Amino acid sequence: MLNLHLPFRLASPKDGSAMADLLPDGATPAVIGPNTVVAEEEGRVVAAMSGHAVDESWQVDLFAVAPEHRVDLTPRLLAVADALASDEGLASVVFDDADDDVFRALLDQEGFRPTGRGGRLARVVIPQG
Q1: Quick count: other Cβ atoms within 10 Å of Cβ 36?
Q2: Residue 26, exposed/middle/buried by CB under 10 A (0-12, 13-18, 19+)?
Q3: Torsions phi, psi of 32, nearest 5?
Q4: What is the pLDDT of residues 103-129, one digit of tens each?
């Protein structure tokens, strides 16, 4: 079972517009599901992530962090992705497309590597304490 620590919590339907504000085009996330997590600071959603199991991987569908929190929250949010994957017995975490250079560099620092399938990046799940 996922054990979240502040500033992270499970998202609720009321978080949809705040999550959309984090996205480059302002699009509303399609679904806030049971695996949607947000980070909140001073009442403001500053990060959001959602995904689901695909084969042996946890596929990240949504990953958005406010620019001023990218460096500090990205590794912590990726640890949450690892915990979600581990809870489902999955071996890796996968991003299909990381086209932003800054974000791609952060993923590289966190051990994500190209899989040879388009812009897909993956890493083996890092066990969470």
Answers
A1: 21
A2: exposed
A3: -100, 105
A4: 888 899 999 998 877 778 999 998 765
- Kind of pairing between the strands at 57-65 and 44-54: antiparallel
Structure tokens at 77: 């949010």
pLDDT, greater one: 44 or 28: 44
Q: pTM to 2 decimals?
A: 0.88
Q: What total of structural domains would you count in the chain?
A: 1
Q: Which domain holds residue 38?
A: 8-124
Q: Indicate whether 69 belongs to any domain.
A: yes
pLDDT for residue 109:
92
CB contact at 8 A, 61 and 93: no
Tokens linked to 63: 């990953």
Question: What token pair was written down for 59?
Answer: 């596929």
